[in-house]
User: Fold these one by one.
Assistant:
Number 1:
Amino acid sequence: MKVLLSIKPEFVKKLFSGEKRYEYRKAIFKREVESIIVYSTKPEGMIVGELFIENIINDTPESIWCETKTQSGISHDYFQSYFGDRSEGYAIKISKVIAYEEPYDPVQRDSNFKAPQSFCYVN
């Protein structure tokens, strides 16, 4: 199973360069997912590649930060503002990245395409 995930372009660049090895989320998949198809949000608005999941950490934001900070690709302030006062969160550890040779605009393939707020399952 795969999911389509909306990610800001600044973080997409860091994920594909290897600077960012974790993708943080407030909510996580209910099904078994092996990879993430990356939709780089506007202004890019393109599907740009795929991330393969090594594992997913579920813990308090404080514990997640302690475990992942050296490969987070973000500042502690940004991390804290993202999770706010939540008592739990998720860190998706990326094992492998594949950048598509030719990113594509999903609207050209499906005029009804709407970028997921968080994620959506795909076949």
Number 2:
Amino acid sequence: MTTCLLCDEHDETGGMLCPACTKATRVRLEALPVLYRGLAPLLTPSVSGGQGRSGKGGPAPIPVTLDVLDIRGPGGMASLLESWVDAVRQERGRPEQPHTGSPEGRVDRAAGALLGYLPWIAVSWSEAGDFAKEIRELARSVSTMIRPPDTDRGTRIGNCPAQFEDGVICGAALRLPPGERVVKCAWCLTSYPPATWAGLKVLVDEDERTASNAA
């Protein structure tokens, strides 16, 4: 029996990642290309910000979120995933391969390569914990960025504690829009009416403590 390098729970399989964390990492890797494409609408300048210059005569504000540009740019998600592909190939004695093409195509190829390596990573690689943690944080960060454009984001509640059927925690950002009485996760569509808010806070606080301890 070993300890999973991501959740620190005992793992009877003797691998580096327990089956639950392996499955969660697979789900996140499969989702990353979709999440990447989901950021594209956020690069469209808002029509509500005026045209040309600001009202005070200075330059117009940047029309998109810099975090989105960082993720979508050549050095963002594509480079991060490719760095893990290179690390795995080096560990396994495989020759390096060039990373060419558009950032979107590079994300698709790198995520696909890592999915192919995941069985070996989960069983044998000593860096599996750092790898799975970075993939988790990347997926969570991008999920939080995706939201309907030109709307008030409302009050941030925390990260959605809903579990999928395979036990994976959703983790997307929860917000209560102005005038609404029900918190609804934009990612997994779980609803939290006022009667559940006390229990929701307990779950959110527990997930934040778990994430802090695992960091």
Number 3:
Amino acid sequence: MLKLKPYKEIISYAIAMGLLLLLLRWLEFRFLILEHQYEIYIGIISLLFLLFGIWLSNKVTKPKIKTIVVEKEVRVPIDNFILNETELQQRNISKRELEVLTLMAQGMSNQEIAEQLFVSLNTVKTHSAKLFEKLEVKRRTQAIETAKKLQLLPPTLG
């Protein structure tokens, strides 16, 4: 019985088609024996096939969309942003590292940051690695979120 489960829907369609064919033969027999009007039988048969077609198309074309709800924290922008100097000193973050972090939050790549600050690409990568260590994160997005929580970056930046 477990082997028939994947074919359950196909078998039900086959049974429905068989029943419709039996109904068609029965109507044909009744038409020949009792000599009813031809248009009535065509109307009944077309109505049955119309309803079956609508039902079948709804079954086959129904989208199987799974909705995923993502909850994200939304911060209200603060007009008067005050840099958390104590956190900056505790984590020993230099002014240049803070500049790199700010440019990261603006969505710049390492190459763009290097061009903006007139330093080499390796210098930017070094500053980024030190920032990740000091903020105890592994990715740029985590560094930006952590910096916003610690009030090292304005919440509206990035």
Number 4:
Amino acid sequence: MQSLSRRTFLQSSALLTAGLVAPTLPAFKTAPKPLRLGGPIFLKSDDPEELAREHRRLNYSSAYVPAVKLTDKTRIEAIRKAFSAQNVIIAEVGAWVNMLEADAEKRAKNLMYVSERLALAEAVGALTCVNIGGSYNPKQWDGPDARNLTKEYFDATVENCRKVIDAVKPKRAKFALEMMGWSLPDGPDSYLKFIRAIDRPAFAAHIDMANIINTPERFYQNTALIDETFKKLGRWIVSVHAKDVHGKDVHLAETMPGHGSLDYRTYIRNVTALPQETPFLLEHLRTPEEYDEARNYVIRKAAEAGVPLA
């Protein structure tokens, strides 16, 4: 009996690892929050009300900020009202520039731009302005470089984040760094170090599990990594990206949700168990059809996890 039990256990474990049998999820300790799914839309309109309604038509209850300039106060207010009326949270204002640009004049302009984007997030009622720390790569602003994992990188990024936050002094919007596989923060522990070192209430955590699946161990044990990340960073998390990862030859590649191996039921359950409402945003796809497929997959996995949509 002992031999049979051990053999049965090993067979079951092998099936779970291979993804052939779905693991049984533990019951929620409390009812989950509804999932605030979001993503880009393809409606060609400048009307905030039409844009907000299109999000709802697609079952989105969170959004990337529509195109608007910080100086356009009338449009900012129209966006706030239209999206609030549809119960769509404006999740993120992106600020995708290199805060570690080698040229001092360009670096100063980049930091000013990031500060303006954080100010826009505050004005439009977005939860966060997000950027990466930057890169020392001389050819690609977000490319890999050995120095991106050094104390020099960490200290410079701490200084830059403080400068941006102190320039704006936001009361509601948070500034956050997107997690990356080839630069810091590259996981929950390095993110905690940034939170402690930056030491500003307006600095928060942005989660993208696909970005930090950068080793075979993390790839095969991503359920544990998801749980660890949300356990350690939970109260600081303001926004989450929904992508996936698959193995390709001798490396790991990003793909759309459902085409990889991320444990999406665990991912969704962690997002909706957070104390704060947290957007879950699709990105990096090319066509409406691809977003339809990814959205439907996430909705299906949410239903399997017992999580309703907001």
